[in-house]
Each structure stands twice: as structure tokens, then as C-alpha cells.
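To the team - flavin mononucleotide complex, inputs and output below.
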Amino acid sequence: MRTFIQIIYISRVNFEVKGGLNREVMRILTQARINNPPQNISGVLYFADGCFFQCLEGEQHIVEKLFQNIMQDSRHKKVKVLLRNKISKRMFESWPMKYVPVQDRVEKLLAANGFSTFNPYKFNQKMIDEMLEILSEAKDPTNNDTVKTPNIITRIIRHWSYRKRIIG
Ligand SMILES: Cc1cc2nc3c(=O)[nH]c(=O)nc-3n(C[C@H](O)[C@H](O)[C@H](O)COP(=O)(O)O)c2cc1C
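Output:
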């Protein structure tokens, strides 16, 4: 029987960040949105104050394999797993990789817990749960037709990256 899991991890960037929607973060997001659908991986990515907070969901061995790659990615460091759960239902099922920008509800969560910056290394379980709830309810401003109904070029890239994975 297939086992689905959810991995939630945090990390710190290894590249220069100059506010706004960072180009490198957008590159990561694009990569995720091309690679994840053929592998039936879904999730969400949040980025603030130099820290990533990502949730990956899908079949156990596929998610674990992707996570091994992600851990070795030189664009970030200090990767720390916050949760690794078997799940029966995904939180981000329709999202190849949702992107949630810095926003009020997270700022309020931080302020309510005495944080002045986004430092998920100090989150307790309740904060992690609240963070996930916020991310599941938030809007993704980067979501457009390319994500949900890929155009022909995106489809071709997906096809070949999938073949590369399967055939080598
Ligand atoms: C914070 C972060 C999140 C990432 N998330 C994903 C992801 O969801 N899917 C993915 O394929 N690659 C993701 N990557 C990129 C992977 O580490 C790796 O570069 C990529 O899977 C290699 O894909 P390629 O074989 O198409 O070059 C992420 C990287 C970082 C730093």
C-alpha cells in the first residue's frame, strides 16, 4: 500500500537577500513547480528574514528522495526537520508548490509570541501548527495559469525532466 507523508522543515539562505521577491527564491519555486507535478508532490514554501519554511507532501519514498536532494542544495543551510508525519489527506493537494509571501497573519503570530523577526528555529509545536494553518488559508500571488494549466513549453519541460528521472 502507498504511504503518504508530509515533511515540514526549515532552513536559512546561503545567498544574498535584498527584500521583496528574491530572484533565487523564484528560481527555486519554478524548479519545484516543474519537477513536483510528475512526481505527485505538493507543498508550500514560505520565505522571510532569510529563512525558508517548506512543507513537502507525497508518496513516502519520493518525498524522502527529493528531501535528500534539497538537503544537499547549496542555496541554503541549517536544514532542520520540524515534522515528519504519515498523512491520509494532504493539506496542499492542489499545489505543486504554493508560495506564500510575508504577510500580516504571520507577523501577528510572531508578535504574539514575542518574536521581532521570522525565526522558525525557535517555534514551538503550537506555532508550527498555526503557521501551517495560515499557509493553508493564505493566497498565493504568484499563482497563475502557468501553474494550474501549464502551457505547451512547461509541459514539454516537465515531460523531459520526468523522462530524465525515469530513464536516466
Ligand atoms: C528551499 C528549497 C526548496 C526546494 N524545493 C524543491 C521542490 O519542492 N522540488 C524540487 O524539485 N526541487 C526543490 N528544490 C531544489 C532542489 O534542491 C534541487 O536543486 C532540484 O530538485 C534539482 O532538480 P533538477 O534535477 O531538475 O536540477 C528546493 C531547493 C531549496 C533550496
